[in-house]
Predict the structure.
Amino acid sequence: MTELLRVADVRRSFYGVQALTGASFSVRPGTITGLIGPNGAGKTTVFNAISGVIPAESGSITFDGTDITKARPEDISRLGLVRTFQIARGFPKLTVLETLLLHGDDQPGETLPIALFRPGVSAARERALIERAKQVAQRLKLSHVLGNLSSDLSGGQKKLLEIGRALMARPKLILLDEPVAGVNPTLTGEIADRIRELRDEGLTFLVVEHDMGLVARLCDPVIVMANGAKLAEGTFDEVAANHTVQDAYLGVRA
Ligand code: ATP
């Protein structure tokens, strides 16, 4: 397959403001694709449309061969397309392990009857889920904090836990919303290493990030959005040298 995700001519407006004006781009499997652009370019809106939170008004979105344009967020996530959030949402009273377990993909509707009538099955499921949470923590180098409260984690560890929650859903594609915002440079490097390792294991990423140093090191290709549509695509060096891209950023700064 040449593309895992295809966004085709997607439009969305809010109270007359055109946030997406015909956005079209694809994400190839096995890539860490960057999505950049000046403030208000439409990056968050396109993430919301892809993940089903705020659906597109027109156009189409296809994931892994399935049309998800009108699909509900939980169905999209079940297909293997999962999103993380810019501000790591906390569960102050939960440990890291409990936080991961909450995002396991077991069917909650089945859990109670099974727990009541087939306790052996329920216990086996729980053990499998705990095992998976531990594996996820290990992949993110969070094993040593599994028993800590999520709220006590450092900013960088919270970002990793946010990725961990996404991993619990067994995704094929993760939409990462500013994975290093507010994180110090050393931890930024570590988060980038973890993302690369996950890519090497077969995961695909679409990353919105304002830290251009990280985008340059991590993302290939890089898609540039401006005014609600794709403006350019290429390696970071190619798009950074593109005069139309430079004008889009300067226009906003001016
Ligand atoms: P930033 O880098 O600042 O996060 P962005 O590229 O993510 O920007 P969006 O947040 O998608 O851009 O915004 C695109 C346009 O859509 C902006 O004009 C914004 O004000 C508008 N917009 C986005 N979401 C909404 C909403 N829920 N209600 C009203 N307007 C919205």
